[in-house]
Design goal:
Oligomer: single chain
Number of domains: 1
Structural class: alpha/beta
Radius of gyration: 14 Å
CATH superfamily: Alpha/Beta hydrolase fold, catalytic domain
Distance between the termini: 30 Å
Helix content: 10-25%
Shape: globular
Strand content: 25-35%
Strand order of the largest sheet: 1-2-4-3-5-7-6
Amino acid sequence: MPFLATPNATMYYDIFEPDFTTLPFPYQMHTVLLIHGFGGSPESDFGGQLAALRSHFRVIAPHLHGYGRSTQRSSYALSFYRDDAADLATLLDTLDIDKVLVLGFTLARKTPLTAGLKNWPLSLRHDPRSSVSETIKR
């Protein structure tokens, strides 16, 4: 069980490596960061899509502060989106991930946008018609 001490929590995360038997050859492996919604978890919000995602991507699925197996919150500060973004940036830095596709569910879409807008060491390309954003470490 991988846990990581981040600025705001002890974060639990799963890494799902791609199913190499389904990958086309040659392929360039991309990483997808799943960000679950308020009250959810990676399993509850993306369980039905995980097999399809793994057929094309390496998948990182953290449990945000206050959810699942990560440290529980006693309250929600006004800064919780920024705090979650800082925790995710720490996770990506620790895993030495320079480029990631971000897939967020419901309210989780605000977390990568917060990361991009608050001068984190990330740039963000976001398609407003979907929940997919691409985050690139500068």
